[in-house]
Design a protein that fits this description.
By secondary structure, the protein is of the alpha/beta class. The protein folds into 2 domains: about 10-300, TIM Barrel; about 325-575, Spore Coat Polysaccharide Biosynthesis Protein SpsA, Chain A (Alpha-Beta Complex). The chain is built from 20 helices and 20 strands. It has helices spanning about 45-55, 65-70, 75-80, 100-120, 140-145, 205, 210-225, 250-255, 260-270, 280-285, 295-300, 340-355, 370-380, 395-405, 425-430, 455-475, 490-495, 505-515, 540-560, 580; strands at about 10-15, 60-65, 85-90, 125, 150-155, 175, 180-185, 190, 195-200, 230-235, 275, 325-330, 355-365, 385-390, 410-415, 440-445, 450-455, 485-490, 520-525, 525-530. The strands form 5 sheets. Strands 14-13-12-15-18-16-19 form a 7-stranded mixed beta sheet, sandwiched between helices. Strands 1, 2, 3, 10 and 11 form a 5-stranded parallel beta sheet that branches. Helix 4 (about 100-120) crosses helix 5 and helix 16 (about 455-475) packs parallel to helix 19. The longest helix is centred in the C-terminal third of the chain and has 21 residues, at about 540-560. The protein is elongated. The two termini are about 55 Å apart.
């Protein structure tokens, strides 16, 4: 496309959020901050897309970066600076100013700036808060920025009539605090009959029809001397990003609608109007009537070299503890959408449990028809602590777990879901409960101390109702019978034969161990709705299957009330799944 850029001297401002899709505000109710590490990182690919777009249009931009992003991705941050763009802070980890005290905000600013300055070796003088400042009550944050020596901020969003008593706050202005001042670059807005509506960029670029939005930007360009402050996030250039399942309809619209439109719309504006960085605007447009900033000092601060701090060498402890051997069995069925998420989660588990337990992993591909098997090979085939099994057909989750237990060589064996609806780190609470006399420990989200996040109310009601009915059948009264998140004594589990290979096999496993006199212990756990991919459970067949299983278990209990450990059920009461025993495993 030819460059049709307006040749007027007025330069507008482009700001870019250097963050990943799982950092987005639209997903904050579905994704907790401590889950970020689990998701497939797509930041580098999207950052390069943004940088290449800027190179194509000859545009420089101000990138706002979280400290935790710079900490994990210093190379990307350095590439932004190497290509001539400006770097500014966005706090350490997207914590909302309204959820912090002034002291906490100050500490967050310092921590983030230290990390960014160490990453790129230059002074950081700009800031953007994780969430826009939309009320005069939020202006205390700007006061602290002044005290901390920041030159500018771009956090203010004059929304509706929130700043109608201070109309000048809609444009670039001087925020005064005592004898000091700060440049504030608010997000640009559209005045709709006295109500200010956001149009600065990001989600608005994608949701508002292009021609309507273009006319509003053209009107701003003609009507105001102040620059138009536009923004977008690098993840908005990624139409193929993973979809999070548990979001509301509104959140899905905010996050995913028209992602493929972003590059075209942003490129159109960059070719039509001159855009630049905030620091470029400051050095070019020192207002003679506002003695607010010494621009020579400002320019010097922006290019000041920061000497890296000396970090003391890390020393390993000399004492090596003997670790308990533990095997973790994980079944997979068409889970290519979750494998990056799972792999990242497993890395954290190894760090948290590796000093206490000698962990081995058995991955069972339960007849997947997608790319699960190939991805398991890519991620884990070269690891000596991992065994990968492949079942030729889909047998079901319980059958796959039993196959993994058969292949295990340790007495302590854990099972978990591949979608990480239970955080595997909770194994550090479950494993110690497998004490002498206990044969199975199960994680229980419905325990009085358990927790559940993002699970639909109707599904929660059905699950709790099923558990209540199982309580009437079983000798041992638990709150949860259906979870896959468990720790087994292998010698006890291998004596149990199942009729149900799928999801129903999980409560059947507990039921038959209960009838055989084995001891089951229940530990509170946290269950979160599946974030990626689709659940394989079928609702109506599941309901009728549970009722039929309860009836069978009740008949067994009434016919054999005196069974005690270590007796086994009679063969006619333990119909084995021949396919589980006889089918070859790769």
């Amino acid at each position: 496309m030819s460059d049709i850029r307006d040749m007027s001297p007025k330069r507008h401002i482009l700001t870019i959020g250097l963050d990943d899709y799982y950092h987005a505000a639209a997903l904050k109710s579905s994704i907790q901050r401590d889950q970020w590490y689990r998701f497939e990182p797509r930041l580098e690919k999207n950052a390069m897309r943004a940088l290449d777009l800027l190179d194509e249009t000859g545009t420089k931009a101000t990138f706002f970066v979280m400290g935790c992003v710079a900490e994990k991705n210093p190379g990307i941050v350095k590439e932004v600076v190497r290509r001539g763009h400006e770097l500014a802070s966005q706090g350490y980890c997207h914590k909302n100013v309204r959820h912090m005290t002034p002291a906490e905000f100050r500490e967050d600013l310092r921590h983030a700036r230290d990390i960014l300055e160490q990453a790129v070796g230059i002074r950081i003088v700009g800031n953007r808060c994780a969430r826009p400042l939309i009320s005069p009550k939020d202006l205390w944050a700007l006061d602290i920025l002044v005290e901390e020596g920041y030159v500018y901020d771009s956090s203010l969003l004059p929304l509706f009539r929130s700043f109608h008593r201070q109309p000048w706050r809609r444009f670039v202005h001087a925020h005064e605090f005592g004898s000091q001042q700060l440049w504030e670059f608010p997000f640009s807005t559209w005045n709709c009959f006295g109500f200010l509506m956001p149009i600065a960029g990001g989600v608005y670029l994608r949701q508002i029809p292009y021609e309507f939005h273009r006319r509003k930007v053209e009107h701003w360009n003609r009507a105001y001397e102040a620059p138009f402050v536009m923004y977008f996030h690098v993840w908005e250039l990624d139409a193929e990003q993973p979809r999070i399942n548990v979001t509301s309809r509104l959140e899905r619209i905010r996050q995913y609608r028209n992602l493929g439109k972003t590059a075209h719309v942003v490129g159109s504006y960059l070719r039509r109007h001159p855009f630049g960085t905030i620091s470029d605007y400051l050095t070019r447009n020192s207002p003679s009537t506002t003695p607010m900033v010494n621009f020579e000092r400002t320019t010097r601060a922006m290019t000041e070299v920061v000497v890296p701090k000396t970090i003391p060498p890390f020393s390993l402890p000399t004492e090596v503890k003997e670790r308990t051997p533990v095997t973790v069995v994980i079944p997979f069925f068409n889970e290519e959408a979750t494998l990056h998420y799972f792999s990242n989660t497993l890395e954290r588990v190894e760090i948290e449990l590796g000093s206490t337990y000698a962990l081995r992993f058995v991955f069972v591909d339960d007849g997947s028809t997608d790319h699960t098997w190939e991805m398991l090979q890519d991620h884990f085939a070269n690891r000596p602590d991992c065994t990968i099994l492949r079942l030729p057909v889909n047998l079901g989750v319980a059958a796959a777990i039993l196959k993994g237990v058969q292949r295990s060589e340790t007495e302590i064996v854990c099972s978990m879901d591949s979608d990480c609806t239970y955080d595997p780190s909770q194994l550090k609470e479950l494993i110690p409960e497998l004490v002498p006399g206990v044969d199975l420990v199960t994680g229980s989200p419905y325990h009085p101390q358990g927790r559940v996040f993002n699970v639909p109310r109707w599904r929660l009601t059905l699950s709790k109702s099923a558990s209540l009915l199982y309580r009437q059948v079983m000798r041992q009264k638990l709150h949860t019978y259906t979870a896959c998140f468990r720790v087994y004594r292998r010698s006890a589990l291998t004596s149990i034969l199942l009729d149900e290979p799928g999801f129903l096999g999980m409560p059947e496993m507990i039921g038959k161990m209960d009838l055989a006199g084995y001891q089951v212990r229940e530990i509170p756990a946290t269950l979160e709705a599946r974030l990626l991919g689709r659940s394989k459970m079928k609702l109506l067949p599941g309901i009728f299957g549970h009722l039929a299983l309860m009836a069978r278990l009740l008949r067994l209990r009434l016919s054999k009330p005196a069974l005690q450990r270590p007796q086994k059920l009679k063969p006619e009461e333990q119909v084995a799944i021949e396919s589980v025993r006889t089918r070859p495993v790769a």
